[in-house]
Specification:
By secondary structure, this protein is of the alpha/beta class. It contains five helices and four strands. The longest helix is centred in the middle third of the chain and has 42 residues.
Amino acid sequence: MPWLVRWVQDLIVVVFFASAAYLLLPENELRPYARLVMGLVVIAALLAPAVELLQWEPALWAPRLAPAGEEAAALIADGRRMAAEAQRRVLDEGRARAEAHVAGVAELALGGPPAAVEVMWGPEGIERVRVDAPHAGRDEAERAARVIAGLLGLRPEQVAVAWGATEGQGGAGR
């Protein structure tokens, strides 16, 4: 935090000199303009840390943040851990939204809400979709499986719509 102490000291010096210069100015029509200029100087001093952060380069700050090699390794490990956690959260949120989308597509294809929708994930995305539609007939389930596969960009064998009480492979079945 030595940078904070240095910044506050610089700010105090700038405000002091701006106030002293304002007091020394004669009372005439130029005084408001001088006050404006000194105010801009004070604002520039206030914003100096923000400007420095906008030009931030991690390689330049690493020695200031962690003078020892072990501390730098700990910072890097913490950063990787934080990045992995953020990536996991984004992936979970994306999967939840995709599963809600699949449920919406299934509802659209069936003409009503399905009893259950299960999405199996693979390394490349959705691997298989299983929809339970106990109130649907065989023809309706087969049509729904084709519509779901088409709308989600899947192969028909990746979508199973269970109609009645049992599930079929590669589309719909009883």
